Amino acid sequence: MDIRRHVPWNDRAGRFSALKTAVLGLLLLPGLAIAAGFAAGGGQPGARPVTVALHACGDWSLRFLVLSLAVTPAIALFARPRLMLVRRMVGVAAFAYAALHLTLYSADQKWNLGVIAGEIVHRIYLTIGFGALLALALLAATSADAAIRAMGASRWRWLHRLVYPAAVLALVHFFLQTRFDVSEPVLMSGLFVWLMGFRLVVRGRGVPAAGVLAGLSLAAFAATIAIEALWYGVATTAGWRTVAAANFSLVAGVRPAWLVLAAGLAVSTAARLAARRRLSAEGSPARSPRK
Ligand code: HEM
Questions:
Q1: CB of 227 sitting under 6 A from ligand 1
Q2: pTM value?
Q3: Do residues 170 and 187 both lie within one domain?
Q4: pLDDT tens digits along 245-278
Q5: C-alpha of residue 101 to centroid of ligand 1, in Å
Q6: Are residues 107 and 159 in the same domain?
Q7: For residues 135 and 169, is the Cβ–Cβ distance under 8 A?
Q8: How many structural domains compose the chain?
């Protein structure tokens, strides 16, 4: 076995890849920050280091899961097929942070496996988190090229659609464990809606036009407001109308829906500029055939 083809900073041919190395560094950064915070006793006065690290690992696992879903749209929008090299790394990082999250939870429960299993069975938010973790474990275990060869590409692709229910379960787990401010789960849900919507509008039709992307961003904006209003309407005494209306004043700060809209519009503008740059580069004299 040629080990150079399997180390995470090399490409499939075993050559050093600056892109993979940079992404690997970025994926490890939160882990280093979490470890440093843990060593410093949790960062905030009175904080329990294990709890702080447990929450941070959960947050980063979900962020990387959503980021892994953004790689395919980025490849299509920016014509960057090399990004495919890092999709698997980001997905495996999501699993690694989730596994660390469970390890910290187990440490917090004094490694009492009976208590841990009982809690996972009886607390619905933990049961849902466990479901997400199982799905991520299956995806990580079958992420190597050897698994693709063994399973065949179409069965492998079918199995890897598990990433969508895994993300939904992780989002629900996040909502259910949050007591007061659901801004981050709402933001993550809005981004997830945009990424799923992108897949729907792209289906066999090539890269969507700028107007379609703007429409998608508006739809994700509306969906994010609906998710937030629904959550507060069902789980708290705040009326859903009041929550929805808060999106149109600054009293409660900038709401997640606006961040989703801004991200969607920024991506479509950047994709348009990149396409224009590609077109002008293709038409530039340096590239045109000599007469
Ligand atoms: C067996 C699997 C899992 C267990 C036992 C578990 C357990 C927990 C616990 C105990 C909390 C904190 C609840 C509290 O403080 O009241 C939590 C929060 C969280 N978990 Fe999990 N979890 C699991 C799987 C996952 C997975 C797979 C993800 C993401 C992909 C995830 C993401 C999160 C997030 C984002 C939070 C909130 C962190 C925050 O408040 O900043 N969890 N989980």
A1: no
A2: 0.93
A3: no
A4: 999 988 888 899 999 999 999 999 999 999 889 8
A5: 7
A6: yes
A7: yes
A8: 2
